[in-house]
Structures are given as structure tokens and as C-alpha cells.
Amino acid sequence: MPPAADDGGDSSMALLAEASDEIDRTTFEQILEMDDDEQEREFSRSIVFDFFDQAESTFVKMDSYLKDKDLDQLSALGHFLKGSSATLGLTKVKDSCEKIQHFGARKDETGQLDEDDDEKSLKRLAETIATAKTEFHSVEEVLKRSGYKAGQSSGSSKQPNQPKRAPLTHFLCLPLVTEKSKPQLEASLSRFRKTLSAKFLDGLPADDATPRAFGQGPRVPLVPPSAIRPVGTIHFTLGVMSLETNERVQEAADFLRGLDLKSMIETNSRANDPLIISLTSLRSMHAPQSTSVLYAGPGEDSDDLIQIASVLRSTFTEQGYLIPDERPLKLHATIVNTIYAKSGNKKIANLKINAEGLLDEWKDFVWAKDFTIEKLAICKMGAKKITDADGEIIGEEYEEMASIQFST
């Protein structure tokens, strides 16, 4: 059975929306993006279940170290659980765990002022740990009501000896925005938006003058503009990472920069330059009659690129930097994801569209032609908004932690 509430996916997402003071929906939706199957949600389920286990075991350890008055260990556990809860966007739990980290480090709750009285720190720790437990059980209940219950899917239920999945922090990717591709992508996405502005869920023409029924809201676009991804986010993901400390990030960055990409390409390619590609077509991640993700892929003759990307994924996985993923690598650049869809300032829960017409209309479209993939990068999860001098949002992009040029 799918991990959904009894009355359907819409109510599941509505529960998350109602818990906006406990769960940062944007962060949680980034986890949902990694699910291949929106019904099974195997990936996000494993992340949520692992967090449940991590939190319970961490609170048990906290109680023990609180009894032993071990401030240093309590600080370390607060830091650990802060990272795990931040990955899922569990804001209240994260904030309380940050306070635990500070109190254990003999600081005030902001981490700015020293606290010399250990007994005072221990009292604050006891109170904050109790608060964090309450907040955890509250958000746990919300997630369970939203469909994240053990035993609902035989393919993704937690097994007793199954290794825990660490929180996701970064991803390995091939950025597709270059000096040559950017103006092409901007023009293509602009054309795409303009075309979609005349398409509505009711299937009627844009200039349809049929009177609206009393109380009936405005016409809903087939694809809300907010569901179309910004140019700066366009990339091919090779895999996701859990780099929970600055040291691990630095290790992964050093490994990345030490790769002999030239030899790797020569060994795994028959083409003269497999990194010159065109981004083409429009495809659906799910059944096109009811989908939430549409993407473009590399054009014809991309076998060598896929082989190189697969080798890179395997290389980073073998070194322990990528979370293992046995699924065949699918190079896809997300163009539409309805998880970001809004009506005004309000998120549209669990929006599915019938994309059959769009796929047929855009199947031969070239989003960007004959550009070179220039680098391999490690980026931080969560696209950052880019603002102009007046504070207006003008775009989004992922923060690049490290990269290496293919030409070196």
C-alpha cells in the first residue's frame, strides 16, 4: 500500500502544510523529490524511519549522559540530532537540539555567552531535552498521520538489521548551466512558460468565455509557473551524499579535486568529445496521465556520457561519499516539479497533471544545443534564492562546495 493517509495523498500533504511551524515544507519536499515512485515513496520513507530510530536512541543516550553529568557528550549528541532533524526540516526539534549543543558546551542558548556554572547548564539541558522529546513525538505523529508508518509498504518497511540511512546534506552532479547554454536555457524556459500560460487544467482554450459558476474560483493553470524550475538549478544528479561534518565535506572535496578525469573519459568513451551534448525532449518521471515531474535529457549518442557518469557514481560510492543506489543511473534535468507549485503564496498539495499533450508537443524540442559539460561538482542540498540590490528574488541556484573542470 502507498504511504498515504487513509483519505488520500491530498490530505497527507495538507497535514504537512498544517504543521508548518514544526516542519519546513520546502526542506521536506527536497527529500520527496528523490522518490522515484510517488505511491511507494521508498526513498523518503527510509529517511523518515531512520530518523525516528536515530532520535529515540539519541534521547536514551542523552538521559544517560544527563545522569552522569557529561556535558561534552550531551553537546555532541545535540549537534548530531540537530543535523538529522535539519535534513528533514523539523524546525522545532532542530532548534531545541541546537540549544542542547550550546548548553553542553557551557554556553547560553545562543552559543555566544559562556556559562561557568555546570549545574545551571545541566538544569537547562534537562528542561530542553524534555522539550525536544515532546517536539519530536509531536512531529512524529504528524509524519505518521501523513503516511509514514512502518509496515505500509512491504518493499520499504524497516527491517531489524537494515543499516540506518544517514541524513542527506549534499549531492554530486554535472552542472548544465554554462556560458553557452545559459542564454539558450533562459530562452527555452521563457518560451515554455509562455506556452503554458495558455493551458489550463480544465482543458478549455485560454480565451474561453464560459461564465464561472457562483463561488467557483479562478481557472487553474495546467502547470503553475512556480513549478517550473529556475535556470540556475538545471543539472544532472549523479548521487546524494551525507557529509555531516566540515571534515567530511573537505575529504570529499579533496577526493573530487584529485580525480584524473582525463584518463577516466579516455577509458570509458569512444566519442571524440562525449561531454558536448544537447538537452532535448520532455519526458515524465511517472505515468504521464498523472505526474508531478517532467524532465529533459541528453540527446542522441549519449551512451558514452552515461557510461562516464555511471563510473563517477561508482567511484564516489566505493569511497563512501555517495549513498549506495542500485537503480540504473537516469540522467535527467528537472524542468517541472509540482512539489513547488503555489497558488498565490500557498502551496498546492500533491498536484498531479496530465502531461500527455505536453510530452507530445515538446518531444522534439531542444532546450540547449551543442554545449559542453564543463565540470563535476559537489553541491549543498537546497537551492538558494538569489536577490538583486533591492532584495528582489531574481533566481535560484545550488551552492557549490567544490568542483573540478573536465578540461584539466
From TrEMBL:
- Segments spanning the bilayer are none
Q: Which CDD domains match?
A: HPT (cd00088)
Keyword check for Phosphoprotein:
yes
- HPt domain location, by residue? 40-139
Q: Does the keyword Phosphoprotein apply?
A: yes
Location of Phosphohistidine modifications: 79
Gene Ontology CC, one term = nucleus
- What Pfam families does the annotation carry? AKAP7_NLS, Hpt
Keyword list, A-Z: Phosphoprotein
Q: Name its GO BP terms in alphabetical order.
A: DNA alkylation repair; phosphorelay signal transduction system; regulation of DNA-templated transcription
Under InterPro entries, the record lists: AKAP7-like_phosphoesterase, ASCC1, Cyclic_Pdiesterase, HPT_dom_sf, Sig_transdc_His_kin_Hpt_dom
Source organism's superkingdom?
Answer: Eukaryota
Instruction: State the name under which the record lists this protein.
Output: HPt domain-containing protein
